[in-house]
């Protein structure tokens, strides 16, 4: 398992299939790169509605869904609720802004998230979380 | 990251540099290009809204929320700080504060753009191995 100079694990324990849901092309690019760097493979959706359609069309299953909160068409809270109603079993990690208050974060969690992370995402934030969630 | 960039870019930029590899040797420059394309659009939208004299603070705050988000993703610390100030003035409904701060946002954004253009020019001259060495 690859480690950095501080001995921290730099790769996740198994190859994950990840859906990245975000309306910001900049975040999509960065998060795709992070997932690739930690040994995962990714697909993207530009908003919550696309994410729902990907699942509705069937055949798509992801180990992990990175869900942005603020998106047009369908936001992260609504999308998470919908995916859980559709019996989607993937780990869903919400990606929030630091400006979000506690109440907003709680509502997002209650929609069906496994966890929440604040932007910007980094490898050091995401690797321990993924490994922890996979061990659970 | 060079000394000329200190203060303008935070550790998030270094995270992006760490993601750069042989497969994607221009990753950071591609991210920066995306950022400046998106931020130019947002600046234009805010400029037009302010020129119309219509202080729809919710709308202005929404634009700036997006701008701040992108700036956070690339590590543009000074731009981010000015975005935060602008949003505070939006919350207070202070038009004059918004106008004044927006000038600062544009100034810091333009300065960052020049510095990054110079930085990437030097990086291209140095070559991929030297760039990778400097980013470590």
Automatic annotation (TrEMBL), chain A:
- The 4-aspartylphosphate modification is found at 68
Matching InterPro entries, A to Z? CheY-like_superfamily, Sig_transdc_resp-reg_receiver, ST_Response_Regulator
The record's listing under SUPFAM superfamilies reads:
CheY-like
One Pfam assignment: Response_reg
Going by the UniProt record, its keywords in alphabetical order are: Phosphoprotein
- Domain Response regulatory, which positions? 17-134
> What is the top-level taxon of the source organism?
Eukaryota
Q: Name one GO biological process term.
A: phosphorelay signal transduction system
Instruction: State what protein this is by name.
Output: Response regulatory domain-containing protein
TrEMBL record, chain B:
SUPFAM superfamilies (alphabetical): Histidine-containing phosphotransfer domain, HPT domain (SSF47226)
Q: Per the record, what is one GO cellular component?
A: cytosol
Per its UniProt record, what Pfam families does this chain match? Answer: Hpt
Write down which residues bear the modification named Phosphohistidine.
65
Q: What molecular functions are annotated in GO for this chain?
A: histidine phosphotransfer kinase activity; protein histidine kinase binding
Keywords assigned by UniProt, alphabetized? Cytokinin signaling pathway, Phosphoprotein, Two-component regulatory system
Q: Which GO terms describe its biological process?
A: cytokinin-activated signaling pathway; phosphorelay signal transduction system
Question: What's the superkingdom here?
Answer: Eukaryota
Chief localization: cytoplasm
Q: Which PROSITE patterns match?
A: HPT
Q: Where is the HPt domain?
A: 24-126
UniProt subcellular location:
Cytoplasm, Cytosol; Nucleus
Function summary? Functions as a two-component phosphorelay mediators between cytokinin sensor histidine kinases and response regulators (B-type ARRs). Plays an important role in propagating cytokinin signal transduction.
Q: What is known of its domains?
A: Histidine-containing phosphotransfer domain (HPt) contains an active histidine that mediates the phosphotransfer.
Specify the protein name. Histidine-containing phosphotransfer protein
Species annotation:
Brassica carinata
